Amino acid sequence: MPAIDRRTLLASAAATAALTATGALAQPDVIKADPDLSGKSILITGCSSGFGRLGAEHYARLGARVFATMRNLPRPEADELATLAQAEGLDIHIIEIDVLSDKQVEAGVLRAESINGGPIDVLINNAGIGITSPVEVQDMEATKLIFDTNVFGCHRMARAILPGMRKKGGGQIFQISSQLGRVIVPYSGHYSATKFALEAMSEQLAYEMVPHNIDVTIIEPGGYPTKVWVNRNIYTKALRERASDLHTSGYPQQVARMGMEDGSGRSADPMDVPRAIARTIAMIPGTRPLRLPVSGGRIPQVRINEVTAATQVGWLGESGVGPLIKGVHQR
Asked: Which are the catalytic amino acids?
């Protein structure tokens, strides 16, 4: 087994200079040009639209073998992606995975590993949902669904893929969080609660993976004009229709807007996220950031990331788990 603080030893001066005290990139462009991902195998959840679909195409065009997963197959989005892959000669394999299903997660990862001829190099936990409203209006059906998707789904995927990565002796996991995984906007339902949980789970996982040469990076996107707004409206309208006046009566203005979000005013390029992920994949193992904000505008969570990283190192840096903590934050 390699030395437990291998990350510090591997970190080059150039890479270190590009990192903040949190390990988050000052800019998501440490590598300026799109990298060559030939030989990499990448499994992505939630590829029917948004960052998942864009990423599947992008990584494949850079030479990677991509396992694009989505639920409810067959569906038009899968057919469109398959047609595109055939036309461009891209190495894309479409697999059905609903991250809510233990059985589908386990079967989907096994199928990907079988096609790949061995463990997967990179997991991108992209599948996620939003259901907005005042917290009081969020019933248990909505609460269970969003936690099951945004938190437990990522955990299912990590548990399914980590044994292979550990056996191989390395790998990468990307968790698609949000700025709202570190800051909070009122009336956003449990979205921040799930992303806060994902951030904590992912940071702990990053520490525990240091001895196994597996990097964990939490992507923190700002608001982008993707289909997430369409899906959010579907879930939020359903919640509004079944909600009781007992809970909605205290929030008439907010309840009137439930299911009416359209993502307007967001003009940033959603390709920012796949490009940042591709460039991070190409970094030297052990130097990749723990947190990577990606935004077309403000990045309000940077100071929070800095403070929490310094707190972790100050609290546990000289303890028995200090090499794990420093192995993630001092690169």
From this structure: 191
